[in-house]
Amino acid sequence: MTPPHRRMVHLAPRHGHPPAQLPAPQLPPTDLPLSLLPPPSLASLLLAAVASSPSFPHLRHLHGLLVRLHLPPPFNPFLLSRLLRRLAALPRPPLGAPLRYAVAVFSSLSPPDPFLAAALLRFAHLTQPPLETFRLFSRLRCAHGSDLPFLPFAFSPLAKSAAAARSLHAAASAHAVSLLLGGFDKHRFVENSLISAYVACGDVGAARKVFDEMLVKDVISWTSIVVAYSRIRDMGSAEEVFALCPVKDMVAWTAMVTGYAQNAMPVKALEAFEQMAVAGMPIDEVSLTGAISACAQLGAVKRAAWVQEIAERNGLGRNVVVGSGLVDMYAKCGLIDEARKVFEGMHDKNVYTYSSMIVGLASHGRANDVIALFNDMVRRADVEPNHVTFIGVLTACSHAGMVKEGRYYFAQMKDRYGILPSADHYACMVDLLARSGLVTEALDLVKSMTVEPHGGVWGALLGACRIHGNTEVAKIAAEHLFRLEPEGIGNYVLLSNTLASAGEWDEVSKLRKLMRIRGLKKDPAVSWFEGRDGFVHQFFAGDNTHPSMHEIKKRLLELREKLNLAGYVPILSSVVYNVSEEEKERLLMGHSEKLALSFGLLTLESRSSIRIVKNLRICEDCHLFIRLVSKVEPIEILVRDNMRFHHFRDGECSCGGFW
């Protein structure tokens, strides 16, 4: 028979729970009875039991045992803090009960323990709504006053809760109390938490002030400021801070890669990613996602393959987040079949993976494939469509003119899946109806929207009015757009072209005068083309800086002569400036996508296709020009603008003239 002190120590179930329902947690076997074990050994056993406890009731049993054993300080407060940490990590704790219990655990010690107070605040931050941490902090101060001196790390949960709440007032409050209750704002981990809180709340100035006043900065401090400048699109300042950072680790490099990618600086993002790899930094999911996003923005096929190779080499090729990004990347690079190959090769797929594939197929006009994949997705028990999935489905219906199907899925979204339509979903439906000639019905849908229409909704309506020549509705849509997006010059251009096509020249003149008065300037148009060596060439409208510009313009003139014979007449209304027709023709020939196309033809390998990515919507003249080039040159041309993909072949475009 096993001696009593060698048996496994069981905690008896309480409150009538039978053992079959609630197996009691165990302590490992010991050579001595628990009462004879020295406190360090007993604390070690209890710590292991707490760390592996699977539920709230089990932790309560362990707490009861801890109380009965009367461990002396510092073991008792330490174990109670670990108990709260484990309680915070448990899945789906009973609502309300854990916080009440955690407060009771803290209150069981007299006098109040500062270490346990910090653990209690951390528990509140991890398990409760953000501002509840501040309420709890106030309760502790009111209840205990000077009897409870707070430790420095008690203030980090306050700063983190302020960040989670995006409350600048809360961030300033956390900063103030850390200063007033002992000058803890000069502890590095508190300072770093305050920087992160101010960054999350959008006050980069306050974050920089904390940073500049730090006596000792670590890589977290430097990286937080880099992230701060990235978020306000000030990559110049981010570069300056990064250059001064004495130690650049993986996190710091990743901040630069993602900062460039998020601020539409894909070339620099890939340069930073390459430098990161050369520096021997580990590659993780976040840095890869930044590089993947940069490749997607550029449509750089060779770079895309290189990034995928790095993902595979680092064991991240089958990661769901990375895999979903690769699907999106290849789709945006114009390689929709390669995107499908990555998708099919993934063992684990979630809603983001499916949505990436669906949106990619939609951008390439493959509506039937979108619907088939959506049906495959909803047959799975473990994946439910989300709002992005339906944007992809509705976009596919819009590009294909599938009005009946679009109406069906728009209704299904709410009736079957409980997803309330957002302004983005309405924009897809307005685009579908209006492009199909149902302009009045589209306007009625806008008027009946359950959410406020944004610029995308009115922009879809205005774009369709240009196609169908409906100047009356175009003016209504433009009026709303001018109010919502007063500096959106593209809206003025669309309305001007619509009015010009209808011969309303007086209205066109008034509109152009309004543009001059408001000092509107078009966003700089830029197009990218990836060369044979993988180098991404960048062309701005009117650009003369490329080293091959002389050859590019010469080839462009040769193309123009060929196209003139094919019936090309420049669409001068694509130029919104009040200049001579001759000057308009000159400006049109300097558009960035034409320069990229000419360079592509100069460097083309036999039987290759040309892929161009543009940051803005392709103008009508460039669309006509490239369509005719695909007729006179035996080449397929893919252009991705900010609306969709255009596949030009044999004088036709996949968009059918609707974009």
Automatic annotation (TrEMBL):
<feature type="repeat" description="PPR">
    <location>
        <begin position="350"/>
        <end position="385"/>
    </location>
</feature>
<dbReference type="Pfam" id="PF14432">
    <property type="entry name" value="DYW_deaminase"/>
</dbReference>
<dbReference type="InterPro" id="IPR046960">
    <property type="entry name" value="PPR_At4g14850-like_plant"/>
</dbReference>
<feature type="repeat" description="PPR">
    <location>
        <begin position="187"/>
        <end position="221"/>
    </location>
</feature>
<dbReference type="GO" id="GO:0003723">
    <property type="term" value="F:RNA binding"/>
</dbReference>
<keyword id="KW-0677">Repeat</keyword>
<feature type="repeat" description="PPR">
    <location>
        <begin position="249"/>
        <end position="283"/>
    </location>
</feature>
<keyword id="KW-0809">Transit peptide</keyword>
<dbReference type="Pfam" id="PF20431">
    <property type="entry name" value="E_motif"/>
</dbReference>
<dbReference type="InterPro" id="IPR046848">
    <property type="entry name" value="E_motif"/>
</dbReference>
<feature type="compositionally biased region" description="Basic residues">
    <location>
        <begin position="1"/>
        <end position="17"/>
    </location>
</feature>
<dbReference type="Pfam" id="PF01535">
    <property type="entry name" value="PPR"/>
</dbReference>
<dbReference type="Pfam" id="PF13041">
    <property type="entry name" value="PPR_2"/>
</dbReference>
<dbReference type="InterPro" id="IPR032867">
    <property type="entry name" value="DYW_dom"/>
</dbReference>
<feature type="region of interest" description="Disordered">
    <location>
        <begin position="1"/>
        <end position="30"/>
    </location>
</feature>
<dbReference type="GO" id="GO:0009451">
    <property type="term" value="P:RNA modification"/>
</dbReference>
<dbReference type="GO" id="GO:0008270">
    <property type="term" value="F:zinc ion binding"/>
</dbReference>
<protein>
    <submittedName>
        <fullName>Pentatricopeptide repeat-containing protein</fullName>
    </submittedName>
</protein>
<dbReference type="InterPro" id="IPR011990">
    <property type="entry name" value="TPR-like_helical_dom_sf"/>
</dbReference>
<dbReference type="InterPro" id="IPR002885">
    <property type="entry name" value="PPR_rpt"/>
</dbReference>
<feature type="compositionally biased region" description="Pro residues">
    <location>
        <begin position="20"/>
        <end position="30"/>
    </location>
</feature>
<feature type="domain" description="DYW">
    <location>
        <begin position="567"/>
        <end position="659"/>
    </location>
</feature>
